[in-house]
Amino acid sequence: MVPKDRQSLEALPGVGRKTANVVMNEAFGKATIAVDTHIFRVGNRTGLAPGKTPSEVEHQLLRRVPDKWKKGAHHWLILHGRYICKARNPVCDACLISDFCCYNSKNIGKKL
Ligand code: SF4
Predict the structure, then answer these.
(1) If I label 75, which of 13, 20, 30, 38 is the partner at 20 to 30 A Cα–Cα?
(2) Would you state the pLDDT for residue 111?
(3) What is the mean pLDDT of residues 65-76?
């Protein structure tokens, strides 16, 4: 049986904070936000959740994302990072949040 709480999950071999957050969110409906490489990048580029470590970014996201959207935020941010705010060539021309994004090197009007 899979434990529901963070402490028990993180006590399992190979389970860190990110995996525990995913399990708590997906399996048990908790409002956790697992910070992977996409979310780390999006949080820092946009200015929504700046941080030097995944924990810092997670903390900022939990402070800034309204409660009603916390459950889905993990997926929305990952998809944004995977398909729009990509690591090498972010698609800033097509990005719906471009006006709110703090990234200094936006791909606006550049040929990709
Ligand atoms: S404007 Fe560009 S850098 Fe900013 S979130 Fe959108 S894709 Fe990412």
Answers:
(1) 13
(2) 59
(3) 96
Spacing, Cα 17 to ligand 1 middle (Å): 27
Which long-range contacts link 27-32 to residues 24+ away (Cβ below 8 Å)?
Answer: 27/2, 28/4, 29/71, 30/71, 31/67, 31/70, 31/71, 32/70, 32/74
Q: Which atom of ligand 1 is nearest to the CA of 102?
A: 4
Does residue 103 have its Cβ closer than 6 Å to ligand 1? yes
Domains in the chain (CATH in brackets) are 6-100 (1.10.1670.10)
- pLDDT higher than threshold 90 for residue 112: no
CA of 24 to the centre of ligand 1 (A): 29
